[in-house]
Amino acid sequence: MSLREKKKIETKNRIFEVSGKLFKEKGFENTTIDEITKEAEIAKGTFFNYFPTKESLILYFAEQKAELIYDLTEDEVMIHLPTKERIKKFLVALAESYEKDKDLTKLLFIEYRRYIEISRPDISKERSPHYRLIKVLLGVLEEGIEKGEVKGNIDTRMAAETLNAVYFHTLMVWLKSENEFSFSRDIFAKIDLLFEGIGD
Q1: Cα separation of 88 and 91, whole Å?
Q2: pLDDT on residue 125
Q3: How far separated are the first and last CA of the chain, in Å rounded?
Q4: Degrees, nearest 5: CA angle 84-181-185
Q5: Residue 87 has what pLDDT?
Q6: Looking at beta carbons, which pairs linking 96-105 to residues 24 or more positions away fall under 8 Å?
Q7: What would the pLDDT profile of 60-85 be if each residue is shown by its tens digit?
Q8: Distance between CA 54 and CA 28 in Å, rounded?
């Protein structure tokens, strides 16, 4: 990566970090682009070079999570783990990324859902965290069948969608909960339950 490209990424992340801080303090609607640029110490034109609208900051949050999913699939340690441990470690690492800032995660999730419902933006499904997560889980499960670590007669698509549903449901419960509990520990236990089953 060139120095110029590195600088661009740093500037974009700086704008996002400053925006997140202001969103938590003032709320999304009450934060202006002028306030963001002032706090980030950048020109307004620089902001628009990276984010065409304030709402695009919300989409960037979703894209970051989608990218994290991709990055984790490339992790050398995870690639060589048994299927169950690989899925567990992968989902726990995602959960821990949300746990770093619950308040900001909650705020951006609410705004993301509102923006999607109102604006209906043309977002390719490949950029969606849901789509990418299902795709990754599907690949891991299929590899698990080849290794003899997953039952060969399961519907891998249904299994991947079930894991995805459990993950995002747990995320929503955690975000809405007034009680402090660990999202990552909760998902860890649920993956064990899914793999072991609940029958006799």
Answers
A1: 5
A2: 62
A3: 54
A4: 15
A5: 93
A6: 96/184, 97/65, 97/68, 98/171, 98/174, 98/183, 99/182, 99/183, 99/184, 101/20, 102/174, 102/175, 103/24, 104/20, 104/23, 104/24, 105/175
A7: 887 887 788 877 877 777 788 999 99
A8: 9
